[in-house]
């Protein structure tokens, strides 16, 4: 509760002295440590223990101080109370991402004489260089005279000036980490999750885009809380931690996509590729995200999957300038409602009245903002936080109306047929997945031509960049449960491979080949994909 006072504990010492211990509440700003430690020194109190980690609590310090007598202890406690150090900060705490300069970060171990006033003197030097302490640990019993600190300054030049000042004052210290050296930021203690996230993005985002991202997080309490909840949930078990590493990698890739919009946008177009007598295909590849396919039949266009929503304005302009006006897209079919596959659904519907078709469970996933909704995963909460983050960062909005595919029944390749969709003379069978990747997943299969649109299945990893491989090497972890659905995913991959190999065997007699159009990497002819056969062994 805001304004509530806390008490320090007074314990008698062995030599008629006293120990004053408990919690102090400090402001998160440069110079605060100098002011508080100076107040402590003015009462001839010696700090015996001090622990502060800004990433855990930006205001809380756990401290133990040794004073000569009870009167001094009372006077010190009153001085700390008057300064506000014994008053709980407001319960609502919305720390902003203040630290955005990696080169201004420094972590050191420093020798401080074990007597009153030494920390105050050292902290005053830090104050002179506007260094904000974000982590400090000192234990006079375990390591007398040695304090470990992490701090944030305004620039690499300020770090250099600080170290020169410490040398001039003959402090003995050891630099454990320095941001200007390009070391991993994971070694820094005391950064908030949001700051750590933004500093990692700084390597891939231009300054203006990074500012946009920072402003977005600072202005959105929901987004900030989701980031924190994601981090807390990710630390719950080895399973969730493993999944969170993959999620974090994808989040970084998704947010780096911001730097590839506008003037930096590129679109790779492949086609037209004849599929039938009437229908031809264009493959669209944005800088990141999933592949998109345009099926052209006369003047009409049908979209199969898309990339992130943040690319839509650029894609719309690009298509209009190259004779594929998006206003001609009458229907849009999506294999599943992940952000990297369904980002253009809502804007196409809003701008041009395109009819949106997805698995019938997709509305529930959009409504609950959880890609794992409908599964039995133990990682349900983690999937939910991830879904909210990726949706916000890449501008995924749910379409107003999601239509079910025209009904059909039967089975193909061990998969249930739940619909059929006709694009001129191309007959697409809608196959329902078994749930190995995410719920609400379908495959679009044209039996007459042996064509398969399969989303995140049957990807030719040899055609991916190294970064895409690391991001999309997810079958082990992006399952809705790594112990059950991963086996289902393997069975689905086996069934799809068998389906396409059998189809290819039939076409080979006529000198033709079955073709696969995955959501990532290049599309390919089954005849050229030797690795498909290896999957069945």
| Fold-level CATH name of the largest domain | Metallo-beta-lactamase, Chain A
DSSP E strands, number: 22
Straight-line distance between termini: 63 Å
CATH superfamily assignment of the largest domain?
Answer: Ribonuclease Z/Hydroxyacylglutathione hydrolase-like
**Unreliable residue stretches:** 473-484
Q: Percent of residues in helical segments?
A: 25-40%
Radius of gyration: 30 Å
Q: What does the largest sheet look like?
A: 8 strands, antiparallel
Described by its quaternary structure, the protein is single chain
Order of strands in the sheet with the most strands? 1-2-4-3-6-7-5-8
- Count of helix runs: 16
Structural class: alpha+beta
Return the CATH architecture of the largest domain: 4-Layer Sandwich
Write up this protein.
With 537 residues, this protein is an alpha+beta fold. The chain has 2 domains: 173 residues, 2-Layer Sandwich (Alpha-Beta Plaits), CATH 3.30.70.260; 274 residues, 4-Layer Sandwich (Metallo-beta-lactamase, Chain A), CATH 3.60.15.10. It has 16 helices and 22 strands. The strands form 3 sheets. An 8-stranded antiparallel β-sheet has the order 1-2-4-3-6-7-5-8, covered by helices on one side. Strands 9-10-11-12-13-14-15 form a 7-stranded mixed β-sheet, covered by helices on one side. A hairpin with a 4-residue loop joins strand 19 and strand 20. Helix 1 runs antiparallel to helix 3 and helix 7 runs antiparallel to helix 8. The protein starts with 8 loop residues before the first strand and ends with a helix. About 2% of the residues have low confidence.
